[in-house]
Amino acid sequence: MLELLAEVGTVTATEAAARLGYSSGLCSFHLRQLARHGLIEEAPHRGGRARPWRLTRRDSAPGTSEEEAFGNLARGLEDESWQRWLTQRDRAPAEWRHDEAFSAVAYLTPEEMRRVADAVRRALAPYQDREQRPLARPDGARPVALITRLFPLLSEGAGEGE
């Protein structure tokens, strides 16, 4: 959504849905979430029901890069989506009421960690074009959050060598 806004300047939920292949309701939700976190704002418009949105110009906190600020926002939205799923999954169709959440701890070198991340990306690659190409989606396909976080576990007060 942010890439779309950066590309076109302003967008409504309906326009985003047409471009991204999602429902306008889902796009509206995500636009409101991005606005809530201060990344976008309503753009001036001439009335009517259409609500155009645009990127906001924000200064990051001192010492925070744009990439780090976006990463923090993305993780917050991921966590929020997970919590929403946990509280609302009983309302999902029966075949969608389960999830495939799991976690693991593995002892890896930095290079091995990069290889694991690359393997996950390769495993997902055959499905990535479905976001931009709705006709490539099989019947019954729905958006599914795929979240992978690989990071070293540090002991309390860990130094550079741990």
From TrEMBL:
It comes from the Bacteria. InterPro entries: ArsR-like_HTH, WH-like_DNA-bd_sf, WH_DNA-bd_sf. Pfam families: HTH_20 (PF12840). This is Helix-turn-helix domain protein.
